[in-house]
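Our platform keeps sequence and structure together, in a single record for each protein. Such a record has a labelled line for the sequence and another for the backbone structure tokens. The tokens are whole numbers drawn from a learned vocabulary of local backbone shapes. The remainder of this section carries one protein's record, kept here as part of the documentation:
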Amino acid sequence: MTNGAEYVCFELGGSLFALPRTSLDEIHPLPLLFRPPGSPAALEGVYDVGGELVSAVRLDRLLGLEECDPGLYSHLIRLNEEHSSIALIVEKVVSVGPAGPGGVRPLDVDETFRGCVSGELDRGDTLVHVLAVDRLINASEAQRLSAFHDMEGVRSAIFGDGQ
């Protein structure tokens, strides 16, 4: 992580976190979500973006933080590439921009739970935890989310857009 890299900073559970801008596709306001029956606790629901189903995952639950119910100012941060069908629910996106003069202090994988925090942005009076997207959701969890997409896709095909 270099000082020139951009980060999306957001609030969650009373702390500040960041994701590298290169690991996400887009930021959405929180839409109306459909929660499939039997969904895992971390899955708040699914929503449609241009005919593609996206899973809205509670990042507070993934990280074991104090729960903060999604509200009017909550955002979805849609990931890219192999995780493009996943969006993380955060309390509020607060900035998008470079790391700043303090740069990023890398953390050893063994220093955090599942190595989810890969570094810290130094914002002078505040440290912002930089999350490693590839460690937030493992392969078996992604596979379970994909199964819910398939189930919801069949439902949409049967009932059409009106559900």
